[in-house]
Amino acid sequence: MVQPALIGAGAAIIGFILGKNGKQIPVYAKEPLVPRFWSHGQVPIPLSGTPVSFPSMRIPEGMELLIVAWPENTGTITLGTNKDETADALRCFWGLAAGQGLSLDIADTDTLWVNSTENEEGVSFIVRRKSGGYSFGTTGGMVL
After folding, report:
1. Based on CB atoms within 10 Å of each CB, which residue in 39, 49, 131, 143 is the most buried?
2. For residue 13, what pLDDT is reported?
3. 132 and 110 in a common domain
4. Number of Cβ atoms within 10 Å of the Cβ of 137
């Protein structure tokens, strides 16, 4: 059996295969495997003009953050890197209409804020592999 020391640093057991006589043999991988998606959720925006901070999370190497405006939104979603910027229409990213999405290649969400031009709106998000596999239309439909 190959030992992790012979594979190199960072080797980890990723599963087992059955050998002769039904004996389990560990399978090692040198590189970490990247799942199809890492995390997902929603960020509701209760009051227009009052930016909401994104939930704090680290985005693993090889992944990106995809933000999609809720399909039932009636206003525009804006994004920024701090509360003041996000509240200022001249300084923020303008904007996502209902069902529109935006991919961000960032390391974490610690400085990401969202706002809306209407009350009771929001965004959904998913942290996914950069290679994608999803397509988004203007109706907000997601196809795997």
Report:
1. 39
2. 65
3. yes
4. 12
